[in-house]
């Protein structure tokens, strides 16, 4: 099956710093999403981004499908950004698809 | 537009027992997937239901089973619980199409003792 690797596994930032999280995947994909898992366990969808670049406030994401990687940028980090960030992909063009998750990046933002 | 809701939020079961977890999909979504997330790991795909039929399954034994109802809500049933079944169980709904984003619920945290 498809492999998804995220880096770094752990990241500690001072409030206000910027960061880049990376997701590499081993095969072509039809869907790529970035999620933030809050301390209560809920996965919050940040971006649906199988290709191209999107921005939402302090967050932005870029996926280069031909080179099989995606980047999540966090600017001016805040303590509320803490949590685990997951990249997830699926390959199927239709029904019967499944998301394969990376191992996550655990982010801690210190005040 | 309602999101994905799961119940219960927490429960504790004894090894060997059976458990049923429930999920209501987001309005307009006809596909429901279930994931198991062990502590410190990414979610693992259990199975998916589309139009009330299982439409894909991950590497989980048959004692993990499910149902989808005409209103697209879903149940996950686990028989003969084992200690390793302790995990966060997440439900996600989606709608097939070119922009097939998944929406997740808050999960059910199952502890098997």
Explain how this protein is built.
- The complex is a heterodimer of chains A (111) and B (113).
- Chain A is mostly beta strands and 111 residues long.
- Helices cover 0% and strands 56% of the residues of chain A.
- Chain A contains no helices and eleven strands.
- Chain A has strands spanning 4-7, 10-14, 19-25, 31-37, 43-48, 52-56, 59-64, 69-74, 83-90, 100-101, 105-110.
- In chain A, strands 2, 4, 5, 9, 10 and 11 form a six-stranded mixed β-sheet that branches. In chain A, strands 1-3-8-7-6 form a five-stranded antiparallel β-sheet, with no helix packed on it.
- Chain A is globular.
- Chain B has 113 residues and is mainly beta.
- Helix content of chain B is 0%, strand content 50%.
- Chain B is globular and about 40 Å long.
- The interface between A and B is medium-sized, with 25 and 28 residues.
Task: Outline the fold blueprint.
The complex is a heterodimer of chains A (111) and B (113).
Chain A: E1 4-7, E2 10-14, E3 19-25, E4 31-37, E5 43-48, E6 52-56, E7 59-64, E8 69-74, E9 83-90, E10 100-101, E11 105-110
Parallel strand pairs in A: 2-11
Antiparallel strand pairs in A: 1-3, 3-8, 4-5, 4-9, 6-7, 7-8, 9-10, 9-11
Chain B: E1 5-7, E2 10-13, E3 19-24, E4 31-37, E5 44-50, E6 53-57, E7 64-68, E8 74-78, E9 87-94, E10 103-104, E11 108-112
Parallel strand pairs in B: 2-11
Antiparallel strand pairs in B: 1-3, 3-8, 4-5, 4-9, 5-6, 7-8, 9-10, 9-11
């Amino acid at each position: 099956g498809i492999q998804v690797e995220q880096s770094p596994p752990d990241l500690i930032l001072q409030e206000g710093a910027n960061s880049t999280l990376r997701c590499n995947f081993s095969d072509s994909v039809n869907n790529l999403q970035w999620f933030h898992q809050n301390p209560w366990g809920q996965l919050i969808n940040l971006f649906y981004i199988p290709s191209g670049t999107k921005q939402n406030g302090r967050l932005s994401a870029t996926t280069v499908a031909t080179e099989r990687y995606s980047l999540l940028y966090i600017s001016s980090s805040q303590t509320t950004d803490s949590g685990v960030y997951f990249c997830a992909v699926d390959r199927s063009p239709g029904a019967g698809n499944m998301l394969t998750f990376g191992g996550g990046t655990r982010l801690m933002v210190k005040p | 537009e309602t999101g994905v809701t799961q119940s219960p939020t927490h429960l504790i079961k004894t090894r060997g027992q059976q458990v049923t977890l429930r999920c209501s999909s987001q309005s307009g979504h006809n596909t429901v997937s279930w994931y198991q997330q062990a502590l410190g790991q990414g979610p693992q795909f259990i199975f998916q239901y589309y139009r009330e039929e299982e439409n894909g399954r991950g590497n989980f034994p048959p004692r993990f089973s499910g149902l989808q109802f005409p209103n697209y809500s879903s149940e996950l049933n686990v028989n003969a619980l084992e200690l390793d079944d302790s995990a966060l169980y997440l439900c996600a709904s989606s709608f097939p199409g070119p922009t097939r984003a998944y929406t997740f619920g808050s999960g059910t945290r199952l502890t098997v003792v």
